[in-house]
Amino acid sequence: MRWIVIAAAVVFAGNALAAGEGDHGLEVNHLEAGSVSQADGLAAWSRIHDVVSHPRCANCHTDEANIPMWSGPEYETPGPHGMNINAGESRIGAEFLLCQTCHATSALPNTLPHAAPHAGSPWMLAPVEFVWFGQPENAICEQMRDPERNGGRDGDAMVEHILHDAELKAFITWAFDPGAGREAAPGTMQEHLDDTIQWVAAGMPCPGD
Amino acid sequence: MRLTVNRTPYDVDVEPEMPLLWVLRDELGLTGTKYGCGIAQCGACTVHMDGMAVRSCQIPAEAADGAEIVTIEGLGTPEALHAVQQAWIEHQVAQCGYCQSGQIMQAASLLDMNPDPSDEEIDRVMSGNLCRCGTYPRIRAAVKTAGAKMRGA
Amino acid sequence: MSRVGKIARRTFLVGSAMIAGGVAFGTYLVRSPHANPLLEGLDKGEATFNPWVKISRTGITLITPHADLGQGVASAQALLIAEEMDLEMDQFQVSFGEPAAAYYNRALAEESLPFLATDEGRIAESSRTIVSALLKPLGMQGTGGSSAMSDSFDKLREAGAVARETLKLAASRQTGVAISDLRTEAGAVYLPDGTAVPYTELAEAAAAVEPVTRVRLREPSEWRLIGKPTKRVDMVAKSTGTMTYGIDLAVEGMVYAAIRINPRQGGKLVRYDATEALEMRGVQKLVEITGGIAVIADNTWRAIRAAEAVEIEWGEAPYPAEQAQHWEAVAASFNEDHLDQRWRNDGDVDAVLGASGDVFEAEYRSPYVAHAPLEPLNAIVLVGDEFTDVWTGHQLPQLLQMQVSAITGHTSGNVRFHNQFVGGSFGHRLEIGFVEQAAEIAVQMRGTPVKLTYSREEDFAHDFPRHIAMGRGRGSVANGQVEAVDLSIAAPSVFASQFGRLGYSVPGPDLQIAAGAWNNPYLLPNFRMRAYRAPELAPVSSWRAVGAPGAGFIFDSFLDELIHKAGADPMEERIRLMEHEVSRKVLEAVAEMSSWGGELGSNKGRGVAFVESFGVPFAQVVEVTNTDQGIRIDRVWAACDTGTIIDPANFEGLVQGGIVWALGHAINCEITYADGMAEQSNYHAHQGMRMYQAPEIFVRGLENGHKTRGLGEPMVPPAAPALANAIFAATGKRIREMPFDKHIDFV
In this structure, is residue C707 part of a structural domain? Predict the structure, then answer.
């Protein structure tokens, strides 16, 4: 089934730097729909889940409390972002303190240990529908394949999303190379792209199916 | 790169990754903006960039290219105090004073966006600014006074 | 420690005219006064009456020698002079002046004497007088120990009064009007017909008269400035980004330096490779200094970045590498071999506890914590032919001159120290290592000013934290009252560490192991307090209130536990035990302010604590709520007695700020060692309190004490125990170790 892609436009306050628009540097190996088995698709999903449930991703995919998390091997105990930070319903901190106050928009490498990380796209929480932190694997899977909750994306749009992120050196790219002593999400951007293409070609199977 | 600071344009030739904080302090000699931690934990380096409060220790120089920056020196002077600065003096907020440039810049930004903040809102916005002397009770009071001044109350 | 200052005949200098004379300073005068340091370098037409006042036709400068670290002493010293001199607070400039024996601190000696501050008996008083009379000729100038106001209160008022009366005398001579018909106001002498003669116009004439030596200090009822809320002289600059701290200074021709010193403090530099660093933009060279290296570059960021790019192999730490070993060493010190002093032995603790069938025991821990004021360490040093110039903020001017002169080869007197307003100290600016490093670099670049700036990471790595301490209490209760307290505290000696770094050995016991505990003014029927000296571990230094935050936490927590065991009310029992009237009134004040004993909501709890330090009795009540997200500190009531409250606005601000400081560290700060290095490298790992956690703080200052005391530190020690006591009241959980977040969550 093809879904109409609804482009979600989010207006950002602040300096919108066009960071390194250009080549995404990834190899896109399209697969025909249905050309991947259920088993292989689930295997691909499992690897995708390893990535999206990793602290580098899940820390900002939090629920309607709108609080980013500080978790991962760098933290003695996982907990909410310090300094009373709350990203608000806007998910960008517009109600209180903008995430971008401390998290710059820059594609330059992260080199300072313990500094506020930056990426090539304005820092913010993921939309509240994309809650992954502390969620069971199947719940995440169902959300990711549901156009009502994934920003209206079909398989092609998911692939596009990753490519666009690579062009900007934005959040997904950052997760695989966070620098500054933070543990990276497992695998590489290329592998994540390949797994996504594979999962889509398998019909986006979920473990609970 | 070219940046405008307190309405004056400057051409600077520095590494793209030099933090704006050090461009301001060392290259331009504007020392009102302070270095406290370098990792966005203290807020002493807060300036306004294109109307938004940012920690200048996190802004690489290349990201400030073409931007309009306002520092504490541009917010107000002893001869022409900003309402926030007037309130800070009225409430005798500062002790060592080192964090106060950043506190004032953040408070000015808060009141710009939200002229009548609640206690909760003040706590949410200002808690990124560290004060080792512990002047928080007076900062809270000064923010409210400044807000009233700015609303013409 | 310091050279004996030369006693010189006092002279007044106006341009090329010289007049000899002498000025008495009332009770603070040793027969021959110190030379007036303002006499050298007076411009034509400038006059000075005493070491604190300089007047010319164009303006008045008041010398406020104490280091201003944020506690407002520059303003307060000026206020004391201005009070008697009839100046308004905007009619003068302030200056730190030059280091001089005339600015010796007589009050510093008092806290180092083993007398209870509440002991105003003959022996205690005469010891204090002797020590201060000794210190005066040695000219030891220093800021610390909450002593600036004790040191200044009478002395600077007398300086102002002498100046005022001398100006009146000059006006009298000049106009023929009798002195008794003259009055002074707002910087001018007024003639009976209302004519105002500004002080600035009288300066030359005043320098020519015999200074007035007999002055009567005004009664409190006559005070114009003292006791009223004042606008501090530095407040506008600090609110507009125009206050220049040491880190902001630039000197013509300056280069920028950053250091790398072994984070295993005192360990060696084994080898280094600066290849990458030397190729970085703006980097000029690398020099070797004691304990490490320094990189020279053309701006601060480049210097720091390049220094961090030097690959270095560091040697081992001279102290145990792991934190657990530090605690073990302290714990192993509770024995005769390590007894430092038995400070108290009232009643018969052994007999009472021996006979008791129910001895209560508890152990407490107080960790290393960092100073970490917001302005990182920095200094500019220029080694010239004749002089060395040093620009930085420091609390011990003559010490700085001595240490720098040993490095640069100049005499102490030729080290010109330009003191600066400081962005926080809390004890950090008592250490001299960073200035020595800057001098070592500058000596290798003679004629070039060298600005050394520490990165925040280097500042944490080379902090000498508050000393670690453990306490063990044994006690008993009877008939609903506290019956016996046997308290032992073990800690390394902070003074041995601090003075040892300067090459001095300090004989005698270290009062700071016991301070805050041994000197409690309660009348406990049986009380023994013993201090045990642990071996030197990590190098440590005076942290705000020094020994009292740890020892005070230990003592008051233990007392609170006994009171609860006795079934008594924490406030009532403390008041019952408190015979010392001035201290009891402080407790009664917080009881009244907080309406102690009233109904609290569910999940709320209150704790009270009392600790006396630096002569200031201080009580606090803390109220907390045990919420789902953890403990929330709602309100604090604080009362203390400093004898005289000089500026109530500054007073309240300092108390509030110091309580925020203390509570923050008690909640979540500690410095721990791993592989010989401090594990905490920046504020993310040593947060303290943030705005959203700050409670409402209500402050009352009492003035029943006889002496004027200072207020830099005494609000710190009661906060942690009051909080622990409140948490116990709210949750039933007794926390005996700081930081408290090891045991309970905070909002």
Answer: yes
Tell me, yes or no, whether B70 and B89 share the same domain.
Answer: no
Q: Is the pTM of this model over 0.90?
A: yes
- Cα C433 to Cα A21, B143, C468: the distances in Å are 49, 39, 21
Does the structure show a pLDDT above 90 at A106? Answer: yes
On whether both C192 and C303 belong to a single domain, the answer is no
Residue C632 pairs with which residues in a beta bridge? C625
Which one of C302, C374, C420, C544 makes the best mutation probe of the B interface by having the most chain B beta carbons within 10 Å?
C374
Position A98 in a domain: yes
Q: Do C692 and A84 touch (CB under 8 A)?
A: yes
- Predicted confidence (pLDDT) per residue in C109-166, tens digit: 555 555 566 666 655 665 565 555 545 545 578 898 888 998 899 999 999 999 999 9
C71 reaches B (C-beta below 8 A): yes
Give a yes or no: residue A27 inside a domain: no
Asked if the Cβ–Cβ distance from A84 to B16 is below 8 Å, we say no
Of A84, A115, A116, which is closest to B124 when you measure between CB atoms? A84
State yes or no: pLDDT of C23 exceeds 60.
no
| Chain C residues lying within 8 Å of A114, measured CB to CB | 681-682, 684-685
Residues 615-674 of chain C with CB under 8 A from chain B are 649-650, 653-654, 656-661, 664
- Domain with C159, as residue range(s), is 11-240
Co-location of C119 and C75 in the same domain? yes
**Given B39, B54, B106, which is nearest A115 (Cβ)?**
B39
pLDDT score for C587: 98
Give residue C386's identity as a one-letter amino acid code. Answer: E
Task: Tell me what pLDDT residue C321 has.
Answer: 98
- Which is more confidently placed, C306 or B152? C306
Q: Are residues C260 and C188 located together in one domain of the fold?
A: no
Instruction: Please check whether residue A30 lies inside any domain of the structure.
Output: no
Residue of A nearest to B65 (CA): A17
Residue-wise pLDDT tens digits, C295-304? 999 999 999 9
pLDDT of C505 reads 77
Q: Which among B75, B104, B121 is the end of a domain?
A: B75
Supply the pLDDT for residue C138. Answer: 52
- Residue in A with minimal Cα distance to C747: A84
Q: With an 8 Å Cβ cutoff, are B40 and A115 in contact? A: yes
CB within 8 Å: C374 and B44: yes
Domain count, chain A: 1
Alpha carbon distances (Å) from C243 to B48, B54, B98, C24, C233: 20, 22, 9, 36, 11
Report whether pLDDT(C11) > 50: no
CB-nearest partner of B98 from C229, C245, C688: C245
Give the domain extent around B65.
2-75
CATH at residue B87: 1.10.150.120
Closest CA–CA distance from residue C324 to any residue of chain A (Å): 18
Which residues in chain A are closer than 8 Å to C681, comparing Cβ atoms? 113-114
C691 touches chain A (CB under 8 A): yes
Here the tokens at position C256 are: 């920028």
Same domain, B70 and B88: no
* DSSP sequence for chain A: ---PPPPPP-PPPS----TT-S----------TT-S-HHHHHHHHHHHHHHHTSHHHHTTS--TT---EE-STTSSS-EE-STT---TTTTSSTTSS-GGGTS-B--SPP-STTSPP-BSS---PPPGGG--TT--HHHHHHHHT-TTTTTS--HHHHHHHHHHHHHHT-HHHHHH---TTPPPPSS-HHHHHHHHHHHHHTT---TT-
What is the domain extent for residue A62? 38-201
- Give the pLDDT confidence score for residue C100 in this predicted structure: 86
* Residue C283 β-bridge partners: C297
pLDDT of residue C116: 64
Confidence of residue C207 (pLDDT cuts 50, 70, 90): confident
- Tell me the nearest-neighbour CA distance from C386 into chain B, angstroms: 29
Per-residue model confidence as pLDDT tens digits over A122-138: 999 999 999 999 999 99
Q: Does B41 touch chain A (CB under 8 A)?
A: yes
Domain shared by C100 and C161, yes or no: yes
Alpha-carbon gap: B50 to the closest alpha carbon of chain A (Å): 7
At residue C4, the pLDDT reads: 24
Residues B9 and B55 in one domain: yes
Q: Pick from B59, B75, B91: which residue ends a domain?
A: B75
Distance between B32 CA and the closest CA of chain C, angstroms: 4
